[in-house]
Amino acid sequence: MKIVYVDNNATTKVDTQVVEEMVPCLTENYGNPSSMHDMGAGAGKVLKKARERVASIINADPDEIIFTSCGTESNNAAIRSVLKLNPGKKHIVTTMVEHPAVKSLCESLVKDGYRTTFVPVDKKGRLDLDKLYSSLSDDTAIVSIMWANNETGTIFPIKEIAEKVKEKDIIFHTDAVQAVGKLNVDAADIPFDMLSLSGHKLHAPKGVGVLYVRKGVKYSPLLIGGHQEKGLRGGTENIASIVALGKACEIATEFYEDENTRVKALRDKLEAGLTSVIPKTIVNGDTESRLPNTTSISFEFIEGEAILLMMNEYGICASSGSACTSGSLEPSHVLRAMGVPFTAAHGTIRFSLSRYNTEDEIDYIIEKLPPVIQRLRDMSPFWKE
Ligand code: PLP
Predict the structure, then answer these.
(1) Out of 25, 106, 249, 324, which one is annotated catalytic?
(2) How large is the C-alpha radius of gyration of the chain?
C-alpha cells in the first residue's frame, strides 16, 4: 500500500547517509571510547567529530555539547541541575503548552514544594509575554520555554525572551527539539544558557539527544556514573547513534533552505487544499510565526481518532490533537490552553512534513481527506450543514 508519512513531529525517517555512517560503528569500529586500545581510540575519534558537527548546527563550541539519550532526558537534566545548584530558589517559569517532558516534570516538582508559573497563551498560541516577565522574581531559579510547539508549530520569540530573562540574571533553558534542523538556532546570537535537542526529530535514530550547556553555566549531572562526557553524563556513549546525530545535523544544514521553501510550500498547499474545500475548519497556531513543516487543522464536530483511522486505510500517517489517557479521550493541553472549542479540539489533526514529502503525496491527501471528513460528519449527531 502507498504510505504517505506526514507525522514528522512525532518522529522521522533515518536518512540513508546517516545509516551508512552508523553501521561501521556497530560492526567494525565498535570499541568503547574509554578503552585504552586502537578500537577505543577510533570510537573516541568519531565521537569527537560528531560533537563538532552537532555543535556546528547551533553555532556552539563542541565543549558545550553533552550527549544524552533523548530530548526528555535533556529537559529533565537541565531543569533538575539548576534546581539542585540553587537550593534557595523555589520558583520555575514555563508555559502551559510545553511538551510533557517539561510540563509533567514541572507539575511533579510542584508536589516537591516548587512554585511553577505556567505562562498562558492566546487563541493563536502566542505567549503572554507581560505575564512571563512580571512573574520573574528573586526566587526564580529557571525559565524553561520551548522554541517551537510540537502540535501547532507556533514559534516563540526566543531571542527576546532569552535577553529579558538574562537581564534578570536568571538561567534560561529552551526545549528546541522541534526547532533544530528547521530553524536557525544560533548560540552566538541568542543568549540561552541551556538547550535540548533530540536526534529522532531530524532524521537520526531514536534514543539520542543533546543538552547544550553554555560555557560558564554551572551544571550538575542527572546521571552519575563513569567519567563519560567529562563526568557530566555517566553511561557508555551510544556511539553509533551519536555519530548518526552528527551526520544528521550536517545534512539538516544542507536541507535548511529546502525545509523553508519547498517543504513550507507543500505545507501551505496542503493547508489551503483542505481548508478551501472542507467547511468548518480551523487552522490552529500562529500562522505568522510557525514551523515551516507543520499545520494543525481542526475539523469540527468529528473525532480526530476516527479521522486518523480512516486516513490510515489510505496509508496516510498523521497525528491527532488528542491524547488517549486512561480510557478517556482528552483534547490536547495545547489546544485547551489556546481556548480551541471542544467540538473543534476533538477533531484536530496535525500534519508535519519533511524533506521526503512530495507534491504527489500532498495531492493524494487533498484528494482522499475531504470525503473522509464528509463521511464522518454524515454519521455525527452534532454535524449540521
Ligand atoms: N520536546 C518536544 C517539543 C518534543 O516534541 C518532544 C518529542 O515529541 C520531546 C521534547 C521529547 O523528545 P524525546 O522523544 O527525544 O524524548
Answers:
(1) 324
(2) 21
